[in-house]
Known about the structure:
The chain starts with 10 loop residues before the first strand and ends in a 5-residue tail after the last helix. The strands form 2 sheets. Strands 3-2-6-7 form a 4-stranded parallel beta sheet. The mean pLDDT is about 90. The chain has helices at about 35-40, 50-55, 65-75, 110, 125, 130-135, 155-165; strands at about 10, 25-30, 80, 85-90, 100, 115-120, 140. By secondary structure, the chain is α/β, with parallel strands linked by helices. It has 7 helices and 7 strands.
Amino acid sequence: TLSLDAASGALAGLPPVVARNTRLLVLGSFPGVRSLQARQYYAHPQNHFWRILGALWSVDMAGMAYEARLDELRRRGLGLWDVYASCQRQGSLDSAIRQPRLNDFAQLKTQCPQLRAIAHNGGESFRHARATRALGYAVHRLPSSSPANASWSMARKCEAWAETLRLYGLLD
């Protein structure tokens, strides 16, 4: 079942996946229907997120249990969250998002004292780069891991993601 924000009746997002050693935070826009139903980031099997990280780290991220994936992210210093805490939306497309409410990014300062940068996963997330840059972090735009981003090949996505992860010591 989908989680709703009690006050607004809007869809509610997922909590941040962070640790004290998080150096880079990847921000998506808002979880798709499959992710909201599973209460898991990037749960749709066609999304390239877990496969990109698996390719870069030489680990079968997609084949791991979800909690093991999150443990691997935390261990390596990579955090995961979304720009929107809640929104109205039919389906999973970013273009259908209505009445979004931003997450409280300021809390990251205390939760993630080693955080150095935020990487926006796709264009809808990157629309809020000014808000994340205002926190004093370096900001990067990653090509969306969504299968809707068909103009980028998997190899090209991996190359762009590797460039950003390498800057923060997240690649071996």
